[in-house]
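Reader question, answered in our methods column.
A reader sent in the components of a multi-part assembly and asked whether the whole thing could be modeled at once rather than chain by chain. We filled in our standard form and ran it. Here is what they sent:
COMPLEX SIZE: two components
ENTRIES:
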Amino acid sequence: MVVGELAHECDVIIIGGGPGGYHAAIRAAQLGRSVTLVEQDQLGGICLNKGCIPSKILTQSAEKFTSFQEGENWGLEGGGISFNLNKLQQYKQQKIEQLRAGVEALCQANKIEILNGSAFFLSEDKVGVEKGDKFDVFRFRNAIIATGGTPEKPPWARELSELVFDQHSISDLSEIPEKLLIYGSDYIALEIGMAFQALGSKVTMILDDGKEDFDFDQSICRELKRILKKKKIDIVKNSEVLELQHKEDMFTVTFELKGKIETISGTHLFVSTTIRPNTNQLGLSRIGVEQCAAGFIKVDAQSRTTQKHIFAVGDVTEGPALAVKAIKQGKTAAEAIAGIQSQSDFHFIPIVAHTQPPIASAGLTEKEAINMGNDIEIGQFSMSANGFSTLAGKKEGFIKVISCKEKQVLLGIHMVGTGAIELISAGITALEMAARDEDLIFPNYPHPSINEGLLEAVEALRNQAIHIPPKSKNEQKLKV
Amino acid sequence: MVVGELAHECDVIIIGGGPGGYHAAIRAAQLGRSVTLVEQDQLGGICLNKGCIPSKILTQSAEKFTSFQEGENWGLEGGGISFNLNKLQQYKQQKIEQLRAGVEALCQANKIEILNGSAFFLSEDKVGVEKGDKFDVFRFRNAIIATGGTPEKPPWARELSELVFDQHSISDLSEIPEKLLIYGSDYIALEIGMAFQALGSKVTMILDDGKEDFDFDQSICRELKRILKKKKIDIVKNSEVLELQHKEDMFTVTFELKGKIETISGTHLFVSTTIRPNTNQLGLSRIGVEQCAAGFIKVDAQSRTTQKHIFAVGDVTEGPALAVKAIKQGKTAAEAIAGIQSQSDFHFIPIVAHTQPPIASAGLTEKEAINMGNDIEIGQFSMSANGFSTLAGKKEGFIKVISCKEKQVLLGIHMVGTGAIELISAGITALEMAARDEDLIFPNYPHPSINEGLLEAVEALRNQAIHIPPKSKNEQKLKV
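And here is the structure of the entire assembly that came back:
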């Protein structure tokens, strides 16, 4: 193909309009750059249209349903409540359209040119955009790759791939599963499991890859297992899945557990999969952008690829497949293009789960902190001793802080309990500012509030939490 | 009365078992002091038994009731919900007893001697404790006065005082008022007004003392007025109440407004009153503890009175009548007694309201910042542009940050919207650590979350919030 003078000149071209792409586009426009954003499907990407947003509508609905069932305690009397998934799907559709319209309007207000089509690199400074019969060539000064990723089902599930739900397809489910099998151990698996359990499914979770535990700090894992047991969600751990069958509308998973072959059946199967980067169609080999073995694009803290004028952000790069990462990288890339030396830093990236109760975590887990050679102290406060949690009837969970013994600097904060997701930002701010325990002890906390749980977790580092009974002499001795 | 050798020797005596008193008692015990705690009524004080805790049970219930009414959007279908206040009263009683038992158990575990009775100073080192016919004398090394305060109704309401509800008696209300009149402009007036409106009352708020506005930052006041209008809660401002009458189960308030005499009637009247310190029975004149003109005990940042070995904490001291103040002062007093040089600092005390939506505020308001001579910048982000608020159907509110233009240090954070109370601790931590705007821009915020609203409010200081459309050239010029 000869492009020659037919190429459109453009300043910054961004391939992919998910959170990474559209944040990059708007930030670049704010900084005075002229931006062309190419999206092959819908603005907002997987996150807005199929991932984060729909899943949170599901978890919010499940949380409300549970809350309604507890209403009588609170003087709220009425007929039985039933759940209508179709109605929720309508609500979901409406909210997604509303949010997508918002992103479109913002792009327009920022004078971002939006193209619908598939984009790929023709050379180090040219991108082709294809849409049906139409084909355009853009010569760019800078490019940002924000093409995201695709769930990759494990080998045993590939043959039945169309029938098995993953994190991008589960939001389209049109009925509440009678018996839901979940394969996974991350926040997504937990969110889906707890939401459908609340809405009436019988749920079994098979931890992926033979794992012993969930992907959280060990104390959260312990609390999670207690909570899941109470919810009658079964857990299969340390197992290796061998085979998946689908007969008469039932899935049967065959797995090996402690040397024995066992099976488990369900009406639906959800797999929280690994993410494969969407790079196949990009023509990366033509432009010398390096990828790691698994295909993710290598980037530095400015989101810069091995080609200095080309950037990559989000799920197409290494690291956790989280929108928060894509958003930060997107803004950082745009700033780098504009000559600002900002960097992304994911040491204190929050991992949150909209479970019942929610989980929020940032910084090092206890094991990570020890493995890195830190001499640590642990402060932990049970929300059952928190006034607000008690009055609200939300006594499950705790807040745990991990501190470096020598420097008294906080290393990690792990929360499970109502309000954890909002409260984690206090922890993240503290972690980022290298707060010492006194920096969280000195401030004032509203009373009564779950916030006080964070204070008492930090006070517990000094054995000074007010609502923790004093340790016996023996316990104190053990600590020393 | 001759006491002589009959006095019991004691180390630290604390008069009053509310949040200030019991936090002081436990902290002093943690620090190795021997503590005697005298409470004339019930442990936990007004806060636990009649104030903060019961009021939050009411506001939580109202919030749930509202949420239930919106359930249909979320696929939750069922019969009409009705509200049974008696049932909520049972729940309240149960929770109060549970929390009180917790405080009692903690005091016991900390080997705190609890006495039931009225305490007063006999001399600079002796306290008498009276209970019925029994009278004991305690010779103390240190004393902490934590006797709290009593609502003082305005002069026009005193004659009918028994019939008029205040912040200590409202939680005993046995029916939902048909037409509730509220006199006040603080967080308590707003909580009570919005809660009963949600539960079915027709509510009118008369701002106290002829005020023009509520006790919050001007932007929150503006949003509040919009929200209250939507809820059909009427507001009477700039008025002077002249008279209160009660006839045939109806209250009639007569007030002057712009030179005209008007009246308004309701079935119930709630007054969010000023607090009078409980010092009358203490015999303060005998011990040389100074009080300010309004009767509050003068204390320093260590909660020390003008008698160096006697401390005072909570509502009996000057400053806002908030449990958070009492708690901090209580711990500080105990630490001072133990020789630790800690201090209370209420520059960044959170003011929160469990309204619908909630309000949380810390640091300087816009007006205060300007009046103190600061050259300020304002960043404000509407929660209607926040992804999580949108999907949750909770689009009301905003987050506003006030920053010093020269130093880029945050001076105040004001929030109204779902999750504000939990999120304010991120703001308070930032304020206490003298965070600059970059300290809140650098961290990662979970997506989607209301936390991102805080980030975008700070980004708005630089005109770089992603979800705020760019200002027109004219607006930008105006700013410069």
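What stands out: The two ends of chain B are 75 Å apart (CA to CA). Chain B has a mean pLDDT of 95.
Send us your own complexes using the same form.
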